[in-house]
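Extended Data, record MIND kinetochore complex component Mtw1
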Amino acid sequence: MNDATTSLLTEHFSYTPLSLIDDIINSINNLIYQAISSLESGLLATPPERLGFGHANNGSTIPDTDEDGNVVYPEARLEIENGLHQLETLLEANVDKAFDKFEIYVLRNILTVPEDLLFWVRLKHYEGLSFTSSPDAPTPETILALRKRVLETRKLTRSLKEESARNEAVIAQLKSILSTVETVSPDRAENGSKTDAAVKPVDLSFLTSSPAARQLRVGVDTSAHTKYAPLTTNTTFILSQLPALHATLENLRPKLASLPGSSQGLTSRTKRDERREYIESRIRLHLERAGQLAVSDNGNPVVAGRRIDISEAQALESVASMLTQTRKD
């Protein structure tokens, strides 16, 4: 029996032909098990003397008895169980051998369809079916095009959601800045006529209390086990080293130009920079096409960072103005 015949008969019967034969064989096996069980019950209920069991007639041994005084034959039960097991094995072997022949005969001669009639058979539920393709039926090309459209739509949706989230974050920051400016402006207008001594000092606590300051050990002591250098010490040391660095740079710059391999080094460095810029541009273009990187108006990627408070911005502006004023003086 080939696959086409099996498929046709399975569709017609709603089950495979082999499952029908298996059900028949299982039914016969169940009958065997029931017969063995009934035979076992009958043999165990029969007195052992009637089955041929007995004790020796010499007077030296006394047979064992149960509570009712009946003679007990312990070897009788063991003999019955062994005999029933052998009988069951024999019947199963004969059934398997006989029904293997039955299975082959049924599959070859009964549950089969001749090959010359196989493609002419039409089942009842085939009536009224039209196997001609409809002009509106989807083709592999149209399915592929629709799949691409779905992927592009999902990509666009993801990028729009990311852009919306970034815009909401920017709007929230702008609103917080505006609210802070609106609360600070009236205070400045009222205190505009006062002297500079009455102006509130700039809050520069973020320079010593931020995570970066703690990591660099800049600030005040927070415990007995940690030692932090004062901010003024670090600032004074950096400012004291700046003139020496400027002088060293001015001395080394003409010597660098006079070196024989300086032009080659600059050329190789330029090529290396160009190669790195090219790779970065291709990566950025790929990420933009995939909708995973936002680009600003000037072409630079927009990367969300830590939100800067208005007080920190004002403090940084004050520090920059003080440094500029000090350099001018």
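Summary. The chain has ten helices and no strands.
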